Amino acid sequence: MTKALKLLYLIDETSYVRSGAPVTWLDYKVWEMGPVAEELYNELRYDQTLVQNGEAINLSNFIEAKREKGFEGQEQVVIYPKGTYQLNEFSAFEKELIENVVDRFGYCSARQLIDILHQEKTLWHKCVTDNHLKENFRIYGKKSNHSIDFTDLIISNPILQMAAQSAFESMQMQEELDNLDA
After folding, report:
1. 3-state SS, residue 149
2. Which residues pair with 101 in a beta bridge?
3. Class of residue 69 by CB neighbours under 10 A (exposed 0-12, middle 13-18, buried 19+)
4. With contact defined as beta carbons under 8 Å apart, do 26 and 134 qualify?
């Protein structure tokens, strides 16, 4: 589960750097073990329903999350696919991006991905440093309510900033249209 969550984050981060928009639009919280899409984590770990843009998403049609004994007997959540690997819902850009990220990082263990995302110039590291979260993690636990701010990745690129603004406005418009239909 940890590896899948970290790969998903890397897909969104890479997409933002290249296009000004993430693939999933998930909100990544800054936790001790790196960026985590909390709603997705809660669905996988605790069988809670994932809600994105006000709509319930049921991942059980696509994956099965099983609790198994892992390293040193600790319980872990292992994700198994249901059916074949399909990317029909994604654009050609997104398919290529997903494949590139998986090719680049898919060989890494969960621990290696955590280490990569903790490196000094990452968004996670910046947020932890700027908000003094290491002390908070030590005192209060492994989670924080701080979110990763992808806009820091494109601060020096006005074209990607415009693309990001346009994508965000498009997403907001779609949410408003969806709310009218409800």
Report:
1. coil
2. none
3. exposed
4. no
**What b/e string do you get for 29-56 counting C-beta neighbours within 10 Å, with b at 16 or more?**
bbbbbbbbbbbbbebbeeeeebeeeeee
Asked if residues 12 and 23 have their Cβ atoms less than 8 Å apart, the reply is: yes
The first and second tokens of residue 177, run together, are 């249209």
Q: Which of 54, 50, 53, 74 is nearest to 62 (CA)?
A: 50
Hey, what are 159's tokens? 């074209």
Question: What integer is the mean pLDDT of 78-106?
Answer: 88
124: nearest Cα among 21, 3, 33: 33
Residue 52: the pLDDT is 66
Per-residue confidence band for 60, with pLDDT thresholds at 50, 70 and 90: confident
CA distances, 33 to each of 13, 50, 142, 166 (Å): 17, 21, 7, 32
Does residue 39 contact residue 52 with C-beta atoms inside 8 Å? Answer: yes
Confidence of residue 182 (pLDDT cuts 50, 70, 90): low
For residue 73, give every residue at least 6 positions away whose Cβ sits within 8 Å of its Cβ, in sequence order, or none. none
The yes-or-no verdict on residue 73 having pLDDT over 80 is no
Distance CA 72, CA 74 (A): 6
